[in-house]
Amino acid sequence: MENAKRKSGFVTLIGRPNVGKSTLMNHLIGQKIAITSNKPQTTRNRIQTVYTSRQGQIVFLDTPGIHRAKNKLGEYMVAVAEQTLKDVDAVLWLVEPGEFIGKGEQHIAEVLKTVRVPVILIVNKIDMVAKEELPARIEAYRKLYPFADVIPVCALRGLHMEEVIQAIFRVLPYGPMFYDEDTITDQPQRQIAAELIREKALRCLEEEIPHGIAVAIDQMRERPDGSVMDIHATIICEKDSHKGIIIGKGGAMLRRIGTQARIEIEKMLEMKVNLQLFVKVKKDWRDSDFLIKNFGYDKKEI
To answer: How many CA atoms lie less than 13 Å away from 248 in the CB half-sphere?
Structure first.
């Protein structure tokens, strides 16, 4: 009887890189799980988070942006995003309210035509356009696809999040919850810690470096008295010149990345963290099947 009253289902967030998918998801569930930065392709894996209320449960899948792949890591990321569309009950497509709908958006619209579930259009970054211009820009997207709903939002400021939640519940089926009420994510703490380190590196480093880095957690161990979590992690880059930039003069950049990451990891774990960072060069790792699998991007797990 309880299941007849509650709705539950899986919802994926798709869109071009850097359109605000992770920021939106973090706001919807009220907690930071997915990392964010102003660099494209920040999200590499499918990240699962859970929103639970009296109405039911929404399991969000935040995917890498759909883009033209330039290497094996890129191919993996696009495969993750497109596979996720086959496994869900609804799709949130995030776009920016631009005047021109480019090839990237048109490609996504074509991909969505193969989908058999409701698609909700989320027009993000509405603070970037004048209010009177918004209806015309939304209308341009309506001509691309028969959306179940269209909602303008500003994910960065958390505007209109409740409208998004209600729109999702309107299209989800009735049924049992998939997770306990207190579950927020299926991501292991080690993976979130690695991603938080990568986020800080993305934010601190120059444009040409971030795409070529990965983070491996070598050790994550709580001290016997429970006072501190010791974490040893390695930042992997593709070039010797990048290693020098990541470390910085006198180790200053590495310390900056480590300090910012430690603060975030301490918030997540709710305990003190001793974070030790190292840097290694693995040339062209993004084109090595073995290495991208080693760093957590395994095609078999898509």
So the answer is: 13
